[in-house]
Amino acid sequence: MIITCPQCKTRYRLAEHLLKDQGGKVRCSRCSHVFQAPPPAAAGRPALSEQGSPPDQGAEEPFRNETEPNASSAKKPARRLSLLLLVLLLVLLLIGAGYLYFPQIKSRLPFSGDASQPGSLSQKEDSALSDLSQITFTDVRQYMVDNEKIGKLLIIEGKAVNESSVPVEMIKIQSEIFDENGNSLQRKSFYCGNTLSLFQLQVLNQKEMESALKSKVGVLTNNSNLGPEQEVSFMTIFYNPPEAMAEFSLKVVQATPVSQD
User: Fold this and answer.
1) What is the Cα–Cα distance from 172 to 254, expressed in whole angstroms?
2) What is the Cα–Cα distance from 136 to 231, expressed in whole angstroms?
């Protein structure tokens, strides 16, 4: 049967079995107007229009019966939830891919501070390690990151290796940057075992990053009870470093032997 909305004049096909013998309330899906639909017998058979085609031709889907559940409406929340889960999965995949391939796409630090020029800092040799010389470095690298709250960040990271014959813990490193004449520009000391992801480096503020990197024993206590030939990651950050920087140095300033008692 065909029913017409009295407010917007939109016509719909309505299955007769959805209405009771005395009719029922329906809601127009176009203008949301609620009105009383006549009983099936009162609607009768539709007449031809002036052009000779049935008036129900091109009519929209049936009204939602106010007394019957709407199956299509019930499916909408499930569809929206599925779409949201798909979007979240894609975002997680993109973040994982960025972290995995970050070494290949990282920015290189220029000597002059001009991002259009190639080049990177060179590591300055520092032999003043005294009795801590058995703690060595491997996989050291430096790169620049643009932080949305702070600006430019110089990241220096790598791994400290315990080449001594006893376990150590709370390894502390001093990092220093110099200009091309060897003049010291900035210096920082930090504990091993704390690192941040590329995403965190891009969005966290300075206070949040310093808080995440300050643990003496590192994340999951990986800077404690470091046995012979074992290694631990490290990371330090220079915020908006001077453009004159040309090289950096790393020096172990603390490594506490673990008691064998």
Assistant:
1) 5
2) 9
